[in-house]
Design brief:
By secondary structure, the chain is α+β, with helices and mostly antiparallel strands. Helices cover 32% and strands 31% of the residues. A hairpin with a 4-residue loop joins strand 4 and strand 5. The longest helix has 16 residues. The protein starts with 5 loop residues before the first helix and ends with a strand.
């Protein structure tokens, strides 16, 4: 389940640079306005907006989280929750901050008569850029019958989903559970994600991920 793209960048960026359910949404909306006002176009440029919103709303944050000092605030959790809200509610962030590798070329043409049979059972992996380490993290994927299993952090964490095929090359993932700190915040049990295989190479499938009326490019590499 790759609800990735900008969200993983936002999550990693916020949780490493710096619980009322309403507070993350309020902060995310204000950060979104700041990003658009300042015409922020890269993840690295986002920190001033995040810091400004945090400082301007500190009294409200203290009250919402029932804390008396900044040291008591769980920045990792707050960063994850804000990243999730930005992903789902900030069109500007989705449009401007999505990595180029997750965008389809303007002249992209889906492959005709694509054979997706090898995608329905097998071992795969995909890559996400980690803004903290400046390297790409690997998520391993096992697809078997109705099971879609992701393994992250060298197998220490996982995400379990059901996979339901709509047709030969289009499928839906239904989130079940995860012990991963990012995935467990990103998704709730029962949430659904739509994908479509649109092209292939000798060792990978190019997938289209649909989110908020937008389409993103994901490449699943064959592990075996």
């Amino acid at each position: 389940m790759k609800k990735p793209l900008i969200l993983l960048f936002l999550v990693l960026f916020f949780s490493n640079s710096i619980f009322s359910q309403d507070m993350p949404e309020k902060l995310a909306k204000k950060i979104c306005k700041c990003l658009e006002k300042e015409q922020i176009k890269t993840i690295e440029e986002m920190n001033p907006c995040f810091e400004k919103v945090l400082i301007d709303n500190m009294k409200e944050i203290y009250k919402a989280y029932k804390i008396k000092s900044i040291e008591e605030l769980d920045f990792d959790k707050l960063g994850l929750e804000i990243g999730d809200k930005l992903m789902n509610e900030c069109d500007y962030a989705l449009e401007k901050l999505t990595p180029e590798e997750n965008k389809f070329e303007k002249d992209f043409v889906p492959e005709k008569n694509l054979d997706c049979s090898n995608l329905k059972n097998g071992e795969f992996f995909y890559l996400d850029f980690n803004t903290s380490t400046k390297t790409k993290d690997t998520t391993f994927v096992t697809i078997k019958d109705n099971m879609f299993l992701e393994r992250m952090n060298n197998g220490r964490t996982y995400a379990m989903l059901d996979i339901k095929w709509k047709n030969d090359c289009e499928f839906e993932l239904i989130f079940k559970d995860s012990n991963d700190p990012i995935k467990s915040v990103m998704s709730k049990p029962g949430e659904k994600y739509r994908y479509q295989a649109v092209s292939s190479t000798s060792n990978s499938y190019i997938l289209k991920f649909f989110l908020e009326k937008k389409e993103f490019k994901i490449e699943f590499f064959k592990a075996k």
